[in-house]
Amino acid sequence: MPQPVPTPHDMASADVLIVGRVQGVGFRFYAHDTACRLGLCGYVMNLRGGGVRAYAEGPRQSLEAFVRELRRGPAGSLVQRVHVVWGVSTDQYMRFAIESTR
């Protein structure tokens, strides 16, 4: 039996690694505000290596908008690379949070 074609409103997840000048420029707050505006749940955190990781769940269309905004970043940032791993929503997050560095 063929698999159903996903629609833009299907729930999904995006695990995003952002590399560049993304720490010390308000990137986590930018990601948090963007995710909340788009109605996404998950978290964002600085990584010890200098990057930022964001994990978000919600409608695929909203996640795609979120990733586009992360590629742009806030003023003062310089995003060099964005790597996204798409997945299914786990529904384990109730809000979007800023977490401590890992």
Keyword list:
102 residues; alpha+beta; Alpha-Beta Plaits; 2 helices; 25% helix; 37% strand; globular
Describe this entry's structure for a reader.
With 102 residues, the chain is an alpha+beta fold. The chain has a single domain, classed as 2-Layer Sandwich (Alpha-Beta Plaits). The chain has helices at 27-38, 60-72; strands spanning 11-21, 41-46, 52-59, 78-87, 96-98. It has a five-stranded mixed sheet, with helices on one face. Strand 2 (41-46) and strand 3 (52-59) form a beta hairpin. Helix 1 (27-38) runs antiparallel to helix 2 (60-72). The longest helix has 13 residues, at 60-72. The termini are far apart. The mean pLDDT is 92.
Intertermini distance: 43 Å
Strand order of the largest sheet: 4-1-3-2-5
Q: What is the radius of gyration computed over CA atoms, rounded to a whole number of angstroms?
A: 14 Å
| CATH fold name | Alpha-Beta Plaits
CATH class: Alpha Beta
Low-pLDDT ranges? none
User: What is the element string, with H for helices and E for strands?
Assistant: EHEEHEE
Provide a brief overview of the structure.
Helices cover 25% and strands 37% of the residues. With 102 residues, the protein is an alpha+beta fold.
